[in-house]
Structures are given as C-alpha cells and as structure tokens.
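Design request, tokens follow.
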C-alpha cells in the first residue's frame, strides 16, 4: 500500500461542538473539542457590545461579523466600521474576502437589536435618512479591531 499523506486532519461537526483531530505516522493522534461558535472557522470574539447581547466576531482572521445572543449571524458581509446606540447597531459591510455562499452584501446596515430586524445594502443617502428618522445624529463609526 502506498502512503499518500503522512499526516491527516479532519473536523467532526455536530450541532453543539466541533472536534478537530490530527493523525501522524505511528498512530499518534491529537484531538480537541470546542463549542460550535467558539471553534467553527477559528471564531474569536473581539468586542462584546452592551446592546442586548450582540457581539462583533472575527472569523478566519479577517472576516468580521455581528452575531445576536443566540449566535445567529446578523450581518451579510465583513463589517468594516460600526457604531452602537442601543437598541441600534449600524455600520458598513464589505463582500471582499467573504465566501459567496454567505450571500455577502456591500453597503450600510442597521440592526434593531430589540426586534432583531436587519436592514442592509443601504446606500449612504438611504442610510443617513434612516438614521435621521431615528434621531441618531453625529455618528462616530469605528473599526471593529
């Protein structure tokens, strides 16, 4: 039998956890199990917002997303800047470096954390109009890192 790969690795993905394992020659094995959100795509929490439990998360080292308290992704694109005025989170998302299967969107977004409503893909004019309707003036956007 011919050895194709001396070292192999894999992921066992379950509803609530991910197990990563590596198998080396001579049967050595290393295995780590982590919670799904903490481990999937090397997810790391960057900022916890004090707005109804919503979080800014960094995935794959460069994609930045917003997740609700149930860890559902609320942004369709990588967040490049954001601002918080509870119960609202607003910012800009970019589709750059995002997987096409996530249906990424370029443009401004507004999340109402009280209802879970997301409005995304807004032009700057439409975004500013929506914020004006909410009496949100002098927005200070910041990068998520």
């Amino acid at each position: 039998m011919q050895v194709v790969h001396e070292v192999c690795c894999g992921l066992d993905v379950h509803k609530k956890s991910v197990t990563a394992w590596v198998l080396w020659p001579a049967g050595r094995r290393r295995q780590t199990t982590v919670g799904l959100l903490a481990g999937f795509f090397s997810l790391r929490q960057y900022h916890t917002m004090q707005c109804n439990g919503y979080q800014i998360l960094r995935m794959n080292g460069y994609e930045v997303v917003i997740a609700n308290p149930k860890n559902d992704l609320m942004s369709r694109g990588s967040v490049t800047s954001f601002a918080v005025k509870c119960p609202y989170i607003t910012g800009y998302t970019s589709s750059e470096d995002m997987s096409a299967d996530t249906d990424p969107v370029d443009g401004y977004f507004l999340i109402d954390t009280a209802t879970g409503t997301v409005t995304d893909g807004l032009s700057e004019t439409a975004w500013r109009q929506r914020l004006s309707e909410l009496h949100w003036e002098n927005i200070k956007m910041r990068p998520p890192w």
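Comment from the thread starter after seeing the answer: thanks! Helices lie at 36-39, 124-133.
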